Description:
Elements: E1 3-8, H1 14-20, H2 28-36, E2 41-44, H3 54-62, E3 69-73, H4 90-93, E4 98-99, E5 105-106, H5 110-129, E6 133-139, H6 149-166, E7 170-174, H7 186-195, E8 199-204, E9 224-229, H8 234-237, H9 244-247, H10 254-258, H11 261-270, E10 273-278, H12 285-297
Parallel strand pairs: 1-10, 2-3, 3-6, 6-7, 7-8, 8-9, 9-10
Antiparallel strand pairs: 4-5
Amino acid sequence: MGHIHIGTCGWTEKTMAALWYPPGVSTPEQRLRYYAARFDTVEVDSPFYALPQRSYAQAWAKRTPDDFVFHIKAYGMMTGHEVDERAMPPELRDFPHAVTTRGRVLDPSHDMVDASFDIFMDAIEPLAEVGKLGGVLMQFPPFFTALSREQELRNLDYIEYAAAKLAPARMLVEFRHPSWVDDAHREPTLRFLADRGLTYVSVDAPQFDDRSTMPPLAAVTSDWSYVRLHGRNQQTWFKRTESSTERFDWDYSDAELREWEPRLREIAAEADETFVMFNNNAHDYAQRNARQMAEILGDLVPPRAEGQGEESGGTSRLF
């Protein structure tokens, strides 16, 4: 039975910061140290919107304990999403590209995408150098589907390409279209990932009558398992919102969290390490729900040891 590590998808959301951090914990360094004293892992989602700078990863590595693990969400261009041209680094701006009326890069060339991988991997290298890089989250968009054999093969080829570009970093694969795990595709999809040592990302998300979202399938395809809990807000899931905070506005009930207990225990029995990441990042929901989940799972969640992070004074489980 492997350990289950629980964290949140970020530590800087404005609505969360106002509620969760105590007075006096206000700078980026103070907040990360405070967070790392209570959790042993985090998912950094900001690189999805703009490629990070190498200095960011250097600072993250310096401000966290030796056992702390960062998972990094891939830049949007790397997963086929439109990206804001204004946020692109000069190295990418030099590639010929079209832009939509909203200022989004349209159909980037293979060379441009290839370069985005190289810049991304160089930026996060400081984490790998000190053993704090967990996985790279490749969250593919809803239009990345297996609805036809042609689409399936083309997209599987892209997954192989991406895995090669990310190597030796771990690749965490999150699908947003349920065709990948319907009755016809579930076994082949999971086998494809397992044969290549790629990690299937299990998700909790709103469910609809038309089955248009990913089901809560818990599966293990590598030595690590990874779970993201997005909340269950049906009203905002397909809404174009100004920020992810509004879209993932959901406070899990105790009963909803306990639905995942048997699934998590099952995948933890198969994997060396399991990571459970709360992405319901409105207010302080993610941090509170993470604490609840740790209490539900009990001794499977490693406690934070004395002296880790910014505080000492005994061992505690998250808070």
